[in-house]
Amino acid sequence: MKDKEGHFGCSLQELRSLMELRGEESCAMIREQYGDVNGLCSLLRTSPVNGLDGTVEDINRRQQEYGQNILPPQKPKTFLQLVWKALNDVTLIILQVAAIISLALSFYSPPSVDRQHCGKAAGGVVEDSEAEAGWIEGAAILLSVVCVVLVTAFNDWSKEKQFRGLQSRIDQEQKFTVVRAGHVIQILVSEIVVGDIAQVKYGDLLPTDGVLIQGNDLKIDESSLTGESDHVKKSVDNDPMLLSGTHVMEGSGKMLVSAVGVNSQTGIIFALLAAGEEDDSDDAGEEDGKQKKEQVDNKGQNDDDVVMDMRPLNEDGQPEKKKNLSTKTKSVLQLKLNKLTMQIGKAGLLMSSLTVLILITRFLIDTFWVQCVPWSSNCMPIYVQFLVKFLIIGVTVLVVAVPEGLPLAVTISLAYSVKKMMRDNNLVRHLDACETMGNATAICSDKTGTLTMNRMTVVQVFVTGHYYKGLPRLKDIPASAMDLLTTGIGVNCAYTSKILAPEKDGGLPSQIGNKTECALLGFSLKLDQHYQAIRKKIPEESLFKVYTFNSERKSMSTVLYNPDGSYRMFSKGASEILLLKCCMILAPSGEAIPFRTRKRKEMMKQVIEPMASQGLRTICLAYKDFPAADGEPNWEDEGDILSNLTCIAVVGIEDPVRPEVPEAIRKCQQAGITVRMVTGDNISTARAIACKCGILNTGEDFLCMDGKEFNRLIRNSQGEIEQGLIDNIWPNLRVLARSSPTDKYNLVKGIIDSTVLEKRQVVAVTGDGTNDGPALKKADVGFAMGIAGTDVAKEASDIILTDDNFSSIVQAVKWGRNVYDSISKFLQFQLTVNVVAVIVAFTGACITQDSPLKAVQMLWVNLIMDTFASLALATELPTDALLLRKPYGRDKPLISHTMMKNIVGHAIYQLAVIFTLIYHGEILLNIASGRNAPLHAPPSVHYTIVFNTFVLMQIFNEINARKIHGERNVFEGILKNTIFCVILLGTLLAQILIVQFGGSPFSCVALNWQQWLICACLGLGSLLWGQVVSSIPSCGCRKVIKPVTRAKK
């Protein structure tokens, strides 16, 4: 079957051809070529029961023969590509062109004309040697542009690298269950090889192609590959082909891995898409490719090789958004920033255009009218130089005015927060979710594992007519009933669920798999009945049929075939549902007796309700015999199959509330966030847990209802859901019990679409099941459980809770609010600089026919304002004080009244200082005036002091900008933010070097220590003035300043 080199009996090409077949065609090929699946296993040298032996040599040989389960990464953008992208900024292009013209003209001097004949401003004052240095300004501008471009490109590069690293983190945690050397283990998806026996279960996202060996009620969603939304039923006899990238929607089974990586069906399509994208242009290719890739189950790329279930990254390196983007609106911050950026951009363009127009007009009037200079074509190069100079001033005004730093500040703040949130057990998959969470007004949370510990134990039992408030002893239960009880637990729990011995002495046993099933298995062990012995006697392969648990059935049933031709079915499920299907119950003797309606009602009242009121999950265990004489039942008729059961026992399972949850919920309520519990448990259990958590408190008149009642109340007489009917319920609803995923979706949609409250609700939802996908996608922020969550739920989510803990959601709220505040701090700082710089340049143009702040200086200010300030102010750590206020909401202005007061107040101080220095500085400081300097005049001490004072005021005002809610102590926590301190000191040091050694390129003259002291005192004055501004009540601004930047509803 294999050659002497150790190759396998089935080639890579054969397996690829096999996986292209479907349905009966694939079954026929398997029978014709291999006899059955076991024959294919033999050729691949694996055991359908024990799997591969797992030796390193064998795994390496398989990877060499059939490939690894990774996709080759798509090349990230190179640094040069990012530089080119940054160079394409319109304002920088204009600046570059103007600088090049200025540079070219500075080397040209008309030979036949005296510069004085072209007007006062053209010459006469400047020596030839100084005029020849005119090239310095153009060269300095070009150098500044290069610096800005390099910084922008580096930021983009590091941002993309960080997001790829985040995506890598997500994928490195993806594991899958396989059988190796007879042991069921979990390995990284990238380590799966052809020949592995993989266990598939409800909620899995298949990482490879495979052939089904054994299946239980297996249904697959193949829409990601085929586009067909109907679930495909898989079985060994009819359609055994399982494809990578598809979702297991129901059931369980085992498959033989037959294709991995680029050789799987998804890998083949991905390779075709990648090849197609290379032929497209950059922009079109990226957009087109992203849309195509999303249709192929969102496969993606990384800096390293990519495991099969990665999502694509967009052109900024972010994980690609979910398929159904229409269900999500833009984040609160995005809406407000988009509007604000447009407003500032328009104002900046207007001011820069006016600046250029006034400069040109004043020059023309002064030269040709006031000085009466005759027109001369020989003076054209001089006039063009002036025109270029005016254009440079105008463009630099635009550069400073346009908030280019906003996207960078948002990116830095989000990326920093995402990195820190990982430590708080929040793995953020979509960046905007981080900020949106800060505006959350409602959280719809699951109960199990999120509010509770998800460590379940059976604490109460009703069996053979006795209600035990503790656990019964072995001798308390008749042997026949004990056999039914333990056999039912052993075979009717997923074989992947098990109890392992404690890792440490005195520790608790480890629960692997479904926690409810683990509680039952643990109960069996406490009765000294080992479930493994039962499973060894009845292996999973011998099970005749399995009806797996789903949200519709609310139960699980397993059918065994007996040697005499009869069948026995064991069932377990929600007690109030399964008891209705029982017509018999075990008596104290262990025999089955009739279970009539009166007895059922008594049991509900005396057993089920007391258990549920204590917060216990109640599970009914039952069985049913199908005699051989009755013939084989119709197994597809579930209604008939799951009727006339015999009740074996009812157990009460305790899942303690996490000790930190009540405090976390109290913080949410204090922060203006309503917490609702949406659970599949019965209403009594849900209400008891809600009271323990603090969702329901004594004396509050809030609603608790089950899914059936909820559906009845939200639908009209035609059975259609009406928003008005939902609006009557959701504001007071706190607990929704026995809810289906559809109920959860309808509730979330109803809250989001509601207009009953003044503010649009921002809803966060937790989910762990496959069917929670729609609700997770519909929510503003979807949280998936990292431990108990299925792959499908994780894919639909925005944030993964790596510890499944509700308190981690509170941390997400805190970080989200911190992002919003960080952006607001940056805005407060930037807009102050914008207002002052633009007004100074504009008035300078109007009055002195020049800008007091030169182009290179303004580019330096722009660098401080954009890159450094965004990094400094966007990296503040969150505090508990963030949870003491209500959510901002979608309609609250991004620039609050307090922020507007601070911006205007500090702008007044800075303008007063700057204008005093410009127009009276030479008198006050006893220095030569720098006003009305001719073209190519050397730098002056006067304007150097103006520039230095302006920058120092911004540096100290950066400290003021740390507080945006009127706090007086702007130094609070400053030493905790190392990045802020380093940037502040670094900027100050750079400013000293620029002034003292910058010379002509920066239009600076070295200052003496007295002049530095004056500049420093004026800069420090910003801090003192900040205390004055803080004393002014913000409410007074409301009458003076009209709120701006309201987001569209």
UniProtKB/TrEMBL annotation:
PROSITE patterns attached to this UniProt entry: ATPASE_E1_E2
Region (Disordered): 279-325
Coiled-coil spans in chain: none
Domain of life: Eukaryota
Gene Ontology MF term list: ATP binding; ATP hydrolysis activity; calmodulin binding; metal ion binding; P-type calcium transporter activity; PDZ domain binding
CDD domains: P-type_ATPase_Ca_PMCA-like
Biological process annotations from GO: regulation of cytosolic calcium ion concentration
Domain Cation-transporting P-type ATPase N-terminal: from-to ranges: 31-107
GO annotation, cellular component aspect: plasma membrane
Membrane spanning residue stretches: 86-108, 135-154, 349-370, 390-416, 903-920, 940-957, 978-997, 1009-1029
SUPFAM superfamilies with a match to the protein in the record: Calcium ATPase, transduction domain A, Calcium ATPase, transmembrane domain M, HAD-like, Metal cation-transporting ATPase, ATP-binding domain N
Keyword Phosphoprotein included in the entry's annotation: yes
Membrane-topology descriptor: Multi-pass membrane protein
Chemical reaction(s) catalysed: Ca(2+)(in) + ATP + H2O = Ca(2+)(out) + ADP + phosphate + H(+)
EC code(s) of this entry: 7.2.2.10
Keyword tRNA-binding: no
Protein name as annotated: Calcium-transporting ATPase
Native source organism of the sequence: Champsocephalus esox
